[in-house]
Structures are given as structure tokens and as C-alpha cells.
Amino acid sequence: MTSVLGYHLDEAIAILKGEGYVVTTVEVSAKKRIDDGTPRVIKQTLDGNTVELSYSLFMDS
Q1: CA–CA distance from 24 to each of 27, 32, 37, 59, 61 (Å)?
Q2: Cβ(40)–Cβ(8) under 8 Å?
Q3: pTM value?
């Protein structure tokens, strides 16, 4: 399985689905939520053929 830590969420999902995995996502919120931020993967967990991606919203510079 490819490590997609730090990737944009859409790109990470596409990569992992292309490898044949089922992908689920969970948003992790910080105290100061960035509503217009870009979702990036901060954690990935494998359970059988399912990858759970935890993501948070970040400001792009």
C-alpha cells in the first residue's frame, strides 16, 4: 500500500482505489477549524482491504 500521508484527500483516495482498496474517510478537527482549507491526509490505517484515511483542513500557502 502506498503511503499517502500529506496528500490532498482526493488524490490519496484515487491512488488507493487504483490499487484496489476500499477507502473510507474521517475528518479530524482542530480547535481552530479552517472552513475553506484544503483536506490533507494525516493518518492512514489498513484493515483487510479497507483503508481509513483521517484528514484535516489546512491553509495552502
Answers
A1: 10, 24, 20, 23, 27
A2: yes
A3: 0.87
pLDDT digit string, tens, across residues 27-61: 998 776 667 788 999 999 999 999 999 999 887 75
Residue 2 has a CB neighbour count (10 Å cut-off) of: 13
d(CA 11, CA 28): 18
Residue 11, all three cell numbers: 488524490
Would the pLDDT of 26 be above 80?
A: yes
Note whether 53 and 12 are within 8 A (CB): yes
Q: DSSP code of 31?
A: S
